[in-house]
User: Which sequence fits this backbone?
């Protein structure tokens, strides 16, 4: 009975999530994602810099929006991916869930830095200041500190399984900050403009400005998918490597 | 080239900064993957003769 169960071929979802199988199938995603990302970036940059009009109020500085909004979106999407992975770690104790969580954290930190950097450079000509301690900017800065804290927490443990559970709990606690970022512009008085794409009645901008924004957001999202997949593969290889090194150290005469 | 107006410097710095950091991120992720893959291949190659012996 037990032998029959061991010999059973893996189901499709087990194949997807098995670390060894993940290395095999995810390899085929890398070049298509890289190619799609490159095409979207080329198209998006063309639209952003050469084929879109100035805004009637902000002038040419609206072009900063095409790189600011995608990075701000990814800073939150990446955290969403980490929060879902944290649930996978705590509820199902799935090894790929904590691999996903660990791989996403540095990417999220970089996207948050870029969102803050481009926001500051957009804020100076638009509001007259690089920085203001208002709800949106402060909660985004808090998000960066959460990312850095989680990265530090991963580094602090040799036992990755123990680290994964603790990081998962902290990740879920930190997820409270995501709705704060999202609704900060509605809850408090702020210099930051309110949502203008996904709003009741449709986007509050003309197609000539919406299009480069959507294409650049798509390009950055594909970049995230690519980097996350590569980082997950690297983490699986790192764990395999450390298991082999441990086994080798335990072998007699080594 | 398009006219970026009086705030051209902010726009150029924003794009250059994002380009540089994104490039560094891609390079870092690729280099890390390459290093781990090579070490793992070396380790597995070293184990094969032992397993065969």
Assistant:
């Amino acid at each position: 009975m037990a032998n029959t169960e061991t010999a059973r071929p893996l189901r499709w979802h087990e194949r997807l999530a098995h670390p060894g199988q993940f290395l095999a199938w995810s390899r085929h995603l890398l070049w298509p994602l890289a190619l799609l990302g490159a095409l979207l970036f080329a198209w998006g940059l063309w639209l952003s810099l050469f084929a879109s009009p100035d805004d009637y109020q902000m002038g040419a500085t609206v072009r900063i929006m095409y790189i600011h909004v995608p990075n701000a979106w990814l800073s939150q999407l990446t955290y969403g991916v980490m929060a879902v992975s944290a649930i996978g770690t705590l509820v199902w104790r799935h090894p790929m869930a904590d691999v996903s969580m660990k791989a996403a954290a540095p990417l999220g930190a970089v996207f948050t830095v870029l969102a803050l950097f481009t926001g500051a450079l957009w804020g100076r000509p638009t509001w007259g200041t690089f920085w203001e301690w208002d709800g949106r900017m402060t909660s985004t800065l808090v998000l960066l500190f959460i990312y850095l804290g989680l990265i530090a927490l991963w580094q602090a443990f040799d036992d990755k399984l123990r680290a994964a559970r603790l990081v998962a709990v902290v990740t879920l606690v930190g997820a409270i900050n995501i709705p704060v970022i999202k609704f900060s512009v509605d809850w408090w008085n702020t210099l930051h403009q309110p949502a203008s794409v996904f709003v009741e009645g449709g986007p509050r901008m003309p197609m000539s400005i919406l299009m480069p924004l959507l294409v650049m957001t798509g390009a950055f999202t594909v970049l995230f998918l690519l980097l996350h997949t590569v980082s997950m593969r690297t983490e699986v290889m790192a764990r395999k490597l450390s298991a082999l090194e441990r086994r080798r150290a335990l072998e007699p005469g080594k | 080239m398009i006219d970026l107006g009086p705030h051209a410097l902010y726009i150029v710095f924003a794009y250059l900064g994002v380009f540089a950091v994104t490039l560094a991120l891609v390079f870092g992720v690729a280099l890390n993957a390459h290093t781990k893959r090579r070490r793992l291949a070396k380790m597995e190659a070293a184990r094969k003769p032992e397993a065969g012996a």
Notes: The helical segments of chain B are 8-52. Residues 41 and 47 of chain B are 10 Å apart (CA to CA). The interface with chain A takes residues 2-8, 10-11, 13-15, 17-18, 21-22, 25-26, 29-30, 32-33, 36-37, 39-40, 43-44, 47 of chain B (CB under 8 Å). The first helix of chain B runs from residue 8 to 52.
